[in-house]
Prior knowledge:
The protein has 100 residues and is mostly helical. Helix content is 70%, strand content 0%.
Amino acid sequence: KQWYQRRVRGIAVTDTFITFFSLFPEDYDREFYKAHLQALFRGLLIHLDDPSPTIQEGVFKVLEIAGKIHPQYLCEHIDNVKHKHRSSLYCDKLLTIFKQ
């Protein structure tokens, strides 16, 4: 039962973040609100290294959407934390997507 509850919460949080980042307007001032993006990116990158593969996959999907708002800034954050992650798999995937 506990596993199921955690999974449902994880899916709900992932879906909420995806919706949140999908609704950013085209004219969003990325530089003015850079501190907000920094806090969100940092928090999400911590959870990208979660021991649970389900959480990692969910956070990866969120960052795929969030990174479109400020790809260069996300890549800078990834470069700063990638070496701390147990596996660089998802970091590398994100860098491949956004450094094109």
